[in-house]
Amino acid sequence: MPIIPPASATAFVVRKGQILRVTDVEGGQVADFVCFNLNDRNEFFSQAGTRLHNEKVRISIGDALFSNLNNVMFKITDDKVGIHDLQCAPCNNYYYEEVVKVGPRFGCLEKLAIALNIAKAYVPNTFNIFMNVEIDKDYKLIIRKAPSKKEDYIDLQAEMDCLVGLAACTDDVSDCNNGVNTPIKYELRDK
Fold it and tell me: Which residues lie across from 54 on neighbouring strands?
């Protein structure tokens, strides 16, 4: 099983019918996921489309990840956590410099852009696996600690050939990853 080191990202191909398992190695770690149609990079994962077509902001087993062209890209076939985020953009240099004021550094946006070999302007908003975000009574997004435990996983079955970008989230400032960065591993299996 390939391991993504803490605060880094990788890219790889997932073929239609394959199952991608994303596993939290130590617990409490978010994984930022994006994907593109391998044969048409103008089609890519859509947070908004996924919320719209599933008619909810939190998805799990039986739900699907949709593209910007309203096609199913992946289906969730197994999920040991059931808490993932479809609201937040990937953390990024602006967030670290201007919002939380910890100085310049790359976030998941920049790490995914490098892994995918694209400009960061073309990285879609991510499916934030294991990320726990709540909406309070004033409609403010509140980031809570990731609830995943050691070796918890989610299985995503590809419904088309995809180029996937996957990051072990870099955020060690908020509660997102419980204040530390740890690895994420992934595995591809044929159905």
Answer: none
CB within 8 A of 42, min separation 6: which ones?
A: none
pLDDT digits (tens, 9 = 90+) for 160-172: 999 999 999 999 9
Q: What are the backbone dihedrals phi and psi of residue 51, each rounded to the nearest 5 degrees, phi first?
A: -65, -45
Q: In Å, what is the CA distance from 164 to each residue of 44, 102, 178, 186?
A: 10, 29, 25, 11
CA distance 78 to 81: 9
Using only the alpha carbons of the chain, give its radius of gyration: 15
The neighbour count for residue 67, using CB atoms within 10 Å, is 24
The residues near 98 (Cβ < 8 Å, ≥ 6 apart) are none
Residues 120-161 have pLDDT tens digits of 999 999 999 999 999 999 999 999 999 999 999 999 999 999
> Are residues 10 and 2 in contact, defined by beta-carbon separation less than 8 angstroms?
yes
pTM for the structure as a whole: 0.96
